[in-house]
Design brief:
The longest helix is centred in the N-terminal third of the chain and has 35 residues. It is built from 8 helices and 10 strands. The strands form 3 sheets. The protein has a 6-stranded mixed sheet, with helices on both faces. The protein starts with a helix and ends with a helix. Strand 3, helix 3 and strand 4 form a beta-alpha-beta unit. Helix 1 crosses helix 3 and helix 3 packs antiparallel against helix 4. Helices cover about 45% and strands about 25% of the residues. With about 300 residues, the chain is an alpha/beta fold. The protein has 2 domains: about 250 residues, Rossmann fold (3-Layer(aba) Sandwich); about 35 residues, no CATH class.
Length: about 300
Amino acid sequence: MDTAQHTKELLKKVRIVELKTRGLSEHIFSGEYHSAFKGRGMTFSEVREYQPGDEVRTIDWNVTARFGHPFVKVFEEERELSVMLLADLSGSEDFGSTQQLKRELITEACATIAFSAIKNNDKVGLILFTDRVEKFIPPKKGRGHILRIVRELIEFKPRSTGTDIAEALRYLNNVIKKRSIAFLVSDLMDTGYEDAMKIANRRHDLVALRTTDPRESELPSIGLVRFADPESGELRWVDTGSRSVRNAYRAAALKHQQRTREILRRSGVDHAVISTEEGYVRPLMRLFKQRESAR
């Protein structure tokens, strides 16, 4: 495929993702996003005279003493936020046995969040990572900027296939100094990232979206199959016809899920599971509503 044809195909893919995810953000997610993430900071606006029903803790005692009757401080939401998308591009994300690859799922989920964010006047940035940070796009506003992010999510070819979540979170803390909303979109198939996750969640409002595929927890009985590890490249023959093999596979998957849930719980990170089979719309809606009700 020549360069012009490749560019045309890429723009077509970007346009398809934009049409789908922008529509979702405008008609479904925009209000939910605002309710779930508004008021992360409050900034002082003015003082006014006390009115019945005002909270005592908002009284400005200096102004009250000067004028001899109570005045209160008025605060406004610090609406402009930075949203960081941390997208896992490791080899295991190039897997999918149903409707789409996990990488396609990541692209659409990130695009929906990004369009919801700019509709609420927030900036959006992107960190693409494997076992290293592959690319960083600083937070900015505007449709053109979001389309660049979508283009990178679709097109970017990572140099590595491994996973290092801790490195991505450390990088986030180093480059984004002001508190942001950070979405970690990954299958979380890694170890040793709990401490980094706790630190990142103290500095930022960290949310994890764990990507899954049905075949990661259940092997079909289809005889002797040669599997390739997408991150290490190792090839191995597996007898899927063996019940003990399928049971061991299922047990290992359940152990990973339980360990991951426990790490997220201990880190205090809000999270949702998004699947290549069921998509991301309902899990994201549930997550946003849970955050709104917990406010």
